[in-house]
Amino acid sequence: MSSKRPAPTRDSASGENPRMDADALGTELEALLAKLLQAHERLLQAIEQHRIALSHASGDEIRAAVEQETTALVEIADLERARATLVGANEPRTLSQLAETLPEPARDRILGMAAQLRELIQVLRTRQAIVRSATRSLLSHTHGLMAQVGAALSHAGTYGRAGRVQSTTPACAALDLST
To answer: Rounded to whole angstroms, how far apart are CA atoms 179 and 89?
Structure first.
C-alpha cells in the first residue's frame, strides 16, 4: 500500500525546506497515523501473549512473544522516522500540532486518530509495566528455586559471603580396583 507523495513546492522567498500542500499533508498524516495505530495494536497483542507466556512459565512461548514484540517495535521505529521526516525540523514536533494547521475535515479525523494513538500508548505502557513486574517475579522465583537446589546439593553446608548456603562442587573420589 504505497502512497505517491505529491511533488513538494519550495518557498523561494524564505529558503525553507520543501513543503506539501495541505491536502497532501493531511493524506500523508492520516495514512501514517493509521499505520502507527495498527503497529501499536500488534505490539499490544504481543505484550498480551508475553503476559500469558509468563503465566505458563513457558520459555518457548516467551521467546515467540518477545520476537513479536521486537518486530512490532522495529516497525514503530520505522514509522517514527517517517513521522519525523514528515514533520520536519522547523515544523511543529507532534502530529497533533501539525494537524492543527490543516483544513477542517482532515483536522478532525487526524486529531481523533492522534488521540486514539495517545490512549493506546498509555495502555501499552501500563501493560508493559505489568509484564515487567511479572518477569521480575518469575526470575526471583527461579533464583530462589536454584538457591534451594544448590543448598540441598551442597555437601559442606557452609554459608558464603552473601549469607546463603554456598553451593560447591561435590568432592569426587575414585578407587582403582583393577590392580
So the answer is: 85
CA of residue 45 relative to chain centroid, distance: 11
**Which cell goes with 111?**
486529531
Q: Does residue 166 belong to any structural domain of this protein?
A: no
Q: Is the pTM of this model over 0.85?
A: no
| Those residues with Cβ within 8 angstroms of residue 31's Cβ, 6 or more apart along the chain or in another chain | 3
Q: What is each CA distance from 102 to 2, 27, 89, 167, in whole angstroms?
A: 22, 10, 18, 68
* Position 170 in a domain: no
For 156, which DSSP code? S
Chain segment 61-108, per-residue pLDDT in tens: 999 999 999 999 999 999 988 888 877 756 556 777 777 777 787 788
The gap from C-alpha 129 to its chain's centroid, in whole angstroms, comes to 11
The C-alpha cell 492522534 sits at 114
> Is 138 domain-assigned?
yes
Count of domains for the chain: 1
Residue that wins the pLDDT comparison between 139 and 74: 74
DSSP state of 164: S
- Structural domain includes residue 2: no
3-state secondary structure of 165: strand
